[in-house]
Amino acid sequence: MSITIRPAQKKDTESISPLIYLAIEDLAEHFTGATSANEAIERLTHLVAEEENRFSYQYALVIEEDGNIIGVGSAYPENIIDDLTYKTIELSKKFSWHIKSKIENRLLKDKEAPKGTYYIDHLAINEDYRGKGYATLLIEAMENNAIKMGFQVISLLVDNTNPNARDLYEKLGYRFLYNVQANGHNYIALVKNL
């Protein structure tokens, strides 16, 4: 068995988009105006293939087992979140996808990450490969990217209804910072000093 972590490429979009949907579920509908999971995944595929948006392949790492993509993680500096969110919404409009103005305003207003941090936006491992340490490997790779870029703190949000994810992050050294509401969900902000 061969495990590889590498930067995502444009050709990976169809493998990446269902995994991103696993990570964000209904938020995909918020960003794309989709009305079903299948439609959201299809639309995410278009966004992943584009540059400079919240779902772009250019901010993603993939983990492969024997050449098959089994997980994805996306992360970037906190100071570009607002711009990426705006560009994601603009791409959705370009593709003629309808996002409700109330949702659009909330997406643009929410503050997901503490200032000055490197932000893990989403992380997902294919359900058939969970519990084998792959998420940990992907998180460590994103942390290494943050260090290479000169960041001293990495942050993420975990849904407060997902105690397994919170347990994993805390085992890896992340600590509670505050409760936050973003994109219509209640989250716990976690940070780790690098």
Structure commentary:
The chain has 194 residues and is an alpha+beta fold. The protein has a single domain, classed as Gcn5-related N-acetyltransferase (GNAT) (Aminopeptidase, 3-Layer(aba) Sandwich), CATH 3.40.630.30. Helices cover 41% and strands 27% of the residues. Strands 1-2-3-4-5-7-6 form a seven-stranded mixed beta sheet, sandwiched between helices. α1 (13-24) crosses α3 and α4 (81-94) packs antiparallel against α5 (101-109). The longest helix is centred in the C-terminal third of the chain and has 15 residues, at 134-148. The chain is globular and about 40 Å long. The two termini are 30 Å apart. The model has no long low-confidence stretch (mean pLDDT 93).
Structure in a nutshell:
The protein is α+β, with helices and mostly antiparallel strands. Helices cover 41% and strands 27% of the residues.
**Largest sheet, order of strands side by side?**
1-2-3-4-5-7-6
| Tally of DSSP β-strands | 7
Reported CATH architecture? 3-Layer(aba) Sandwich
Helix and strand content put the structural class at alpha+beta
Tally of distinct domains = 1
Descriptive keywords:
single chain, about 190 residues, alpha+beta, Aminopeptidase, 7 helices, about 40% helix, globular
Walk me through the topology.
Elements: E1 3-7, H1 13-24, H2 26-32, H3 37-49, E2 60-65, E3 68-77, H4 81-94, H5 101-109, E4 118-125, H6 134-148, E5 153-159, H7 163-171, E6 175-182, E7 185-193
Parallel strand pairs: 4-5
Antiparallel strand pairs: 1-2, 2-3, 3-4, 5-7, 6-7
Helix pairs in contact: 1-3, 2-3, 4-5
